[in-house]
Design brief:
about 350 residues, Split_barrel_FMN-bd, 9 helices, 18 strands, Flavin reductase (DIM6/NTAB) family NADH-FMN oxidoreductase RutF, oxidoreductase, seven-stranded antiparallel sheet, 2 domains, Aldolase_TIM, alpha/beta, FMN binding
Length: about 350
Amino acid sequence: MPVDSTTFRSVLGQWPSGVCVVTTTGPNGLHGMTASSFSSVSLDPPLVSVCLGNHLPSRTLLGEAGKFAISFLGKDQAHIGRRFAGQDREITDRFAGLDWIMTPNGCPVLSDAVAWLDCTVAHAYPGGDHTIFVGAVTEAALPRVISPLLFHSRNWGQVAQPLPATVQVRDTASPNDGLRFEFLTDGPHGLPSPDRVAAAKQAGNSVVGYVTDAFDPDREDEVLATIAALGALGCDEIGCIESDVTPASPLQVTRILQDAIVRVRPAVLRVRLAGHNRLALVNALVAMKNGVSHFDVVAPGAGIAGLPLGDLLHLSRQLEVAGPNDAADAAGPDLAHLRE
């Protein structure tokens, strides 16, 4: 005896998935719908699948056109997901006001999607009240780097990072050991030349680029572009520095770091927080929750502003995140009690 449909839908709602917009063309122009029933099928040849309800116009149009495209949505595009799911009733033209490009197969894709695929229909299989379309991928692109949009239990969401296994620290006041080539920048222009970075690496130095005032909400796009430029330059570590003048909010720290952690790979992402901010430890926790495990801190008696080493170690211990004993040793006996 089959399970009842209500229970079945509730169970399936517990499975999180990405969100995409499936588009195709028809006699009356462009057509699209939101779908979460997308899956990869094969790498060689490249095949994907999408399941469409037999009652939907998209199912008929896609079958007749023999082609479709998939636009993967980013975390900031839930409004597009709702639009193409028909949840914004006042919108009559779902494509209006959005920036589209046409694929070689003649299907529209979002120019600012996380990624897109251009497909021709290779197979169409009956699947109960749905049709399973298998698409042969002919083109693919990654327009921008951003965390994906998720759908879970009938709600829109985004990726949440687990706490790191350990935290690593570096004393902001410590002198350069001669093995690090460090520089500060406030934008993607005026960076060291690729030749200079290559020479530093060849000499055995780690290349570390810091973005100043990284959590200013008015500079979000510029900061993320700078982080991407530092990654392209080949930095081993990329740091985000909080302004001493304008305290960072946990929300803005989240907005920057959840994208930065993706853009810096394979480099290490560092964070330097301002210790005078009352929300400093909250921001440190937010940074950890967004995948950051490397922090610049200030040891006792350093006489400079910054996140105190003792505070960060205390936080990490309360979260059961392993702390850096070697950093505490280097800081001297004043921090010995933190390891007791």
